[in-house]
Amino acid sequence: MSAPLPPLAYPGLPLGPSSLYTPGPGTHLSPSPSSTHIHASLAGRPILLPPSNKTSTLTPSTNNKATKPTPSPNNRGGAISVPSILPSATHARPTSKNISNKNVLPEVGSVVLARVLRVRGRGVDVGILVVYDKPIEGGPGGGKEGKDGGNAGWGEGNVCGEEWQGVIRREDVRATERDGVVCAEGFRVGDVVRGVVISLGDQSNYYLTTGKNELGVVMAKSEAGNTMVPISWREFRDPVTGATESRKVAKPF
Amino acid sequence: MPLPPSIYHLSSSHLRLDGRRWNELRRLTAQISTQASADGSSYLEMGNTKVLCTVTGPSEGKGGGRRGDEDSMSVDVRVNVAGFAGMDRKRVGRGDRRITELQNTISSAFSSTLFTHLYPHSTISLQIHILSLDGSLLAASLNAATLALIDAGVPMRDYLVACTAGLTPPSGRGDGDDMDPLLDLNGSEETEVPFLTVGTGGAGGGDVGGGGGWV
Fold first, then answer.
1. A-B contacts (CB, under 8 Å)
2. Which pairs from B188-193 meet CB under 8 Å and 24+ separation?
3. Which of B39, B154, B202 is the closest to A12 by Cβ?
4. Residue spans in chain A of domains classed CATH 2.40.50.140
5. CATH assignment of B29-213?
6. pLDDT (tens digit per residue) in A157-182
7. Which residues in chain B touch residue A12, judged by CB atoms under 8 angstroms apart?
């Protein structure tokens, strides 16, 4: 038996001799060969994992729940771990239940929600924020209309851990009269757009389309800053000022 | 213009200009997780030196592997000295040599402290904002950056702490016995006294490195 684990560890804190324990996640062996201690690499509450083979493992874990220090009557054959009490760098934003730590990747046919970042003459740059579970049926070209009050059956939305870059090219904005599209009449920076991924695109962008009735701008703010309501397939109206602005409007359910 | 040597001559008062003894630190306060939007952040005050540090990443390096070091994370440090930080309002340009050296020193210190090999092809960026400047700039920046990196949960060998130390000039009465070491110099002492900033690891390791500055 060695000294009990400290209740809190910070980077560099010696946790135990490496003769008794093996280092687990969040720990490392001391840099100098003279001392043989296991040191924490993260801030957190160290835990002793149950012995697996013949050694104990000390690991700082990055899990918030398993942070109770486990007293070990027999630490022959266990591991020490330091779970981080602080959000780790890669899982830092617990804002929504739907947020997933695994990176949500859009695929061809995925219905996504995206925010307009820039409107250019040849297309619209967007950041993809939410990817729905089920791809739209029949691919980007077909697909069924939403019948019930739900979301037309494309499943649960998953919030992306980081924003993915996407672009709606000018010819993908609407299905008809594709040559006459003026991007500035369909979108404004800050709009939230529902779109479908039509291709993984080039190196940096997913290509999206809004070329269906239920695709297009779902949320928009007016120049005055008020949230607008859709009044036709190509117009939103500011309920406060009464001004209308043109958008590629997504069909409301 | 040097202050009268008697100010440093401790045998008379044993106190420095700001009332500290030779081995006393200034008031030190620190907070972590001050910025919700950053991966890690900290706010540190060492006396009147006030530093805000935010950490972003590790994330995929900008420019997609343009950097030479592919096997390990690169540490990108930006130091921003606010125009109102000093006694007189002035703009510190981006290309300031002092700031560039500061950035390089901090970057190399953390490159050897963090487990950079765990994050290949990525960059971690530290933004250090100097809100108020009263000496020990490098030390305060390193300390704030350490806190922010711990907050961000980036694995590191050891925590890195730094402090400045200086030596008062001889009073001119000959023997040099009246030269006194000073700990944690403030701004006015820093302009008068040769000093050195020492960074070190905590209990688990030895010296990590030192950077210096002198008049």
1. 76
2. B188/B3, B188/B17, B188/B135, B189/B16, B189/B17, B189/B135, B190/B135, B190/B136, B190/B164, B190/B166, B190/B215, B191/B215, B192/B2, B192/B3, B192/B8, B193/B8, B193/B166, B193/B167, B193/B168, B193/B169
3. B202
4. 111-246
5. 3.30.230.70
6. 788 777 889 999 999 998 888 888 88
7. 156-159, 201-205
